[in-house]
């Protein structure tokens, strides 16, 4: 029996998450997948790092990645999301995205994927239970509410706070800084609330999914509580994520992408 060729994976962005993925793929640690190319802003630094892990894959412009890959993983700033997504989907390839909030500003890309046979894949990221929310959405969901509490340093610089002159740097008690829809949160906290958008896409959409954000100076972990009421089940889920070297992102985010890729190359896939 012929062994199928591994699927080629390209990575757009070599920050903490991109490097973790690249190292595993280049080392053959994810069966059925292989690293084929990367796209980065600092090509010289990236080449030095790739050499250090024994990889000679090409460093390409964003729009050339689809020529060298079956799957492209977006690990880049949300500002260049479309530059990665559009050529990938036009080529009918699979796109794994971390900048989920940016998808709300480019929802036409979903129709593009439908026309070309491309796929947009959203890993679970820093959340849990998206499978349960998706299952409940097959019937009727009455409400989805999320309460996020984060250490202060993980929220500093958010556009919502900057535009309103809200200074949380010196607070000494928990402070609710936002209440509204997931769509509004994605605009006001683009580096923090991709999880809320992922939750909304799994369930009842970004306008009906409601969200509270709290800044808590006593916290060391990013915490999320999800409350769902539906015809099939009512449930609550909580998670407390250890921040990565980037305080806006939990360590489990990178691991969720790795798990997502493993399912793509595995003969048995459990969960979505």
The CATH C-level name of the largest domain is Alpha Beta
The total of helices stands at 10
**What is the number of strand segments?**
10
Could you tell me the radius of gyration in angstroms?
19 Å
Q: Assign the structural class, choosing from mainly alpha, mainly beta, alpha/beta, alpha+beta, or little secondary structure.
A: alpha/beta
Q: What's the number of domains?
A: 2
Characterize the main sheet. Answer: 5 strands, parallel
Q: Ends: how far apart?
A: 29 Å
CATH fold-level topology of the largest domain: Rossmann fold
Shape: globular
Give the helices and strands as they follow along the chain.
EHEHEHEHHEHEHEHHEEEH
Low-confidence stretches: none
| CATH level-four homologous superfamily name of the largest domain | NAD(P)-binding Rossmann-like Domain
CATH architecture classification name of the largest domain = 3-Layer(aba) Sandwich
Overall pLDDT score: 92
Report the helical percentage: 25-40%
Q: What is the quaternary state of this protein? A: single chain
Strand order of the main beta sheet, please?
Answer: 2-1-3-4-5
């Amino acid at each position: 029996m012929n062994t199928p060729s591994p699927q080629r994976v390209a990575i757009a962005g070599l920050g903490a998450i991109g490097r973790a993925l690249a190292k595993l793929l280049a080392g053959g640690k994810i069966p059925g997948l292989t690293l084929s190319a990367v796209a980065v802003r600092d090509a010289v630094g990236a080449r030095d790092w790739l050499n250090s892990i024994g990889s000679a894959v090409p460093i390409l412009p964003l729009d050339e990645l689809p020529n060298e890959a079956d799957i492209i993983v977006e690990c880049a700033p949300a500002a260049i999301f479309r530059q990665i997504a559009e050529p990938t989907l036009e080529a009918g390839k699979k796109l794994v995205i971390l900048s989920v909030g940016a998808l709300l500003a480019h929802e036409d890309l979903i129709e593009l994927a439908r026309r070309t046979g491309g796929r947009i894949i959203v890993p679970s990221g820093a959340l849990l239970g998206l499978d349960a929310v998706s299952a409940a959405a097959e019937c009727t969901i009455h409400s989805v509410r999320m309460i996020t509490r984060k250490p202060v340093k993980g929220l500093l610089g958010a556009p919502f706070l900057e535009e309103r002159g809200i200074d949380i740097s010196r607070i000494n008690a928990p402070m609710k800084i936002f209440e509204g829809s997931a769509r509004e949160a994605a605009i006001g906290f683009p580096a923090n609330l991709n999880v809320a958008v992922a939750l909304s896409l799994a369930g009842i959409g970004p306008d009906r999914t409601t969200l509270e954000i709290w800044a808590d100076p006593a916290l060391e972990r990013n915490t999320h509580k999800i409350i769902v009421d539906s015809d099939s089940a009512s449930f609550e889920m909580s998670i407390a994520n250890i921040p990565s070297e980037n305080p806006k992102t939990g360590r489990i985010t990178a691991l969720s992408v790795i798990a997502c890729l493993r399912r793509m190359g595995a003969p048995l896939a459990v969960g979505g």
